[in-house]
Amino acid sequence: MKRREKGVATVCPVARSTEVVGDKWTTLVLRELYMGATRFEEIQIQTEATPQMLATRLKSLEADGMVERHPYQERPLRYEYRLTEKGRAYYPVIQALRTWGETWCKSKGEEVAVHFTHRVCGHEVGLDYICPSCGEYVERRDLDATLSAPFAKEREKRRETYRAAKARSE
């Protein structure tokens, strides 16, 4: 059941939107899906969510029509998660958070975490929605991402930490 079917307490679209995506963990799950992660383990590694927390967020996103599950393995049955049209339509919100975070939440001299290149013309887009070279409005599907060295290292460290913890528990 979708959360809004339980009863709408307001007509405010901001309040209604936060019912779907209004917490840190859901936002981080969506970030990972936009970055190309589709499997539970990789999303868990990069968000650092507990398995229970991640499962809850993914189920909510599925119930709200933001993601769909698709089986990728029969035995045991395992799913990958893919953004729906509704989920892809949320990207400008993530982009706005990224732009705001890059502008207001970084130390001086700290580089941009992800560089986006417009596939059509090959130029870096920066933090805008318009390619500064060709003037086209860009969406996530129009861009190639390159992680900065510090961000790539941070993400790899999470993978290593996860693998080490998994190996210790086996």
TrEMBL record:
Entry keyword DNA-binding: yes
Signal peptide annotation: none
Keywords, sorted A to Z: DNA-binding, Transcription, Transcription regulation
Ranges of residues in domain HTH hxlR-type: 12-109
Alphabetized InterPro entries for the sequence: HTH_HxlR (IPR002577), WH-like_DNA-bd_sf (IPR036388), WH_DNA-bd_sf (IPR036390)
PROSITE patterns: HTH_HXLR (PS51118)
This protein's name: Helix-turn-helix domain-containing protein
Organism: Paraburkholderia ferrariae
Phylogenetic classification of the source organism: Bacteria, Pseudomonadati, Pseudomonadota, Betaproteobacteria, Burkholderiales
